[in-house]
Description:
The protein is α/β, with parallel strands linked by helices. The protein is built from four helices and twelve strands. Helix content is 19%, strand content 34%. The longest helix is centred in the middle third of the chain and has 9 residues.
Amino acid sequence: MDFTTPDLCDQFGAEVQVAEPLFRDFGGVRRFAGAIETVRVQDDNVLVREVLSGEGRDRVLVVDGGGSLRCALLGGQLATLAQTNGWTGVVVNGCVRDCPELAATPIGVKALHTSPRRSGKTGAGQQNIPLQFAGVTLRPGSYLYADEDGLIVAERDLLKA
């Protein structure tokens, strides 16, 4: 991908939201972008698996785990599933685990932190809804751009002419 978040901010300043610098890189790809798909879950990743099992079409899954540090919502198996199904990245407002596997998987993964504990498996959650965290609003169909400098959101694809 040929962009940097600083260049996009400079070129499209009024059109982008810049997320607070809360997220760390865990995936094998540091620069990723795509249309946003969303889920909201609380210490449960069944819905995350369901969504990542579907065709990614170069989208980014944004998982709002409420900032919980109690358990991981994404690990090595789900990152591999996401990459295999054509997702470009996953952003988790919560924790991930299996850091060596995540780093070896060619997909972007940003999260708050790590936790060795696996999540619950009740299947509770919501999909395809607007989310708000880290000072930004993430709507399904909006675009997310991420690299080593941060994460930004725009209502349209800034990379299309």
